[in-house]
Here is the input.
Amino acid sequence: MKTITDQEIQIIKDLHNKYVIKGPFNEAFTDLIWTHSMIVADIAEQIANDLIKQHNITVDLDLLSTGALLHDIGAYQTFDASLHPTTDYIQHGVLGYKILISEGYEEKIARFAQCHTGVGLTKDNIHINHLPLPEEDLIPITLEEELVCYADNFHTKSPTFCEYDKIESDLKKSHEENSARLSYMVRKFGIPDLREIKKKYATWHMKVNALKEKYADQLASL
Ligand SMILES: [Fe+2]
Here is the structure.
């Protein structure tokens, strides 16, 4: 359950609509990124509520939901019209940061976009892998940023949910430092129980996957 109002959610959704690539599938595309963001928000909120219950700690739930719903706002610019990620996809976090700052959002909100890729990208990782990104640490710092970054690993824009073992093996391939960062996060947050969230979005996943199948030829030829 989000603590931000429906009106606040609608304002964020309108921003998604503003940045979607215009084309025959723009509605489906916004739906994909938007619902993925809602799912990430649900996962992050579930982990946060467990932390609050178990340890009586403070989490800014408004900030958490807002950050989760905006973290992928830069993704629209890094997909082609066939809804496939381009080579610029790695830049969607920094692009999102620029969009959010230009739209008047505070640094503490814009940072959710900037630092959510994988388990965060270190300066070393960016340098060694020659990533087309500024050579600086793009890593989550606040608890809320860490929660969104961690939660984002459990759902892809394919769209599908991911199991922890798969996340771990994929992250290991990209940079050894990632395993340590993921271990730190799983010790801190645990592995979320996704059963209820999977049920909640089961019909949506079936709808999107049926659409992808139905328009497979058109999507491939765009
Ligand atoms: Fe995401």
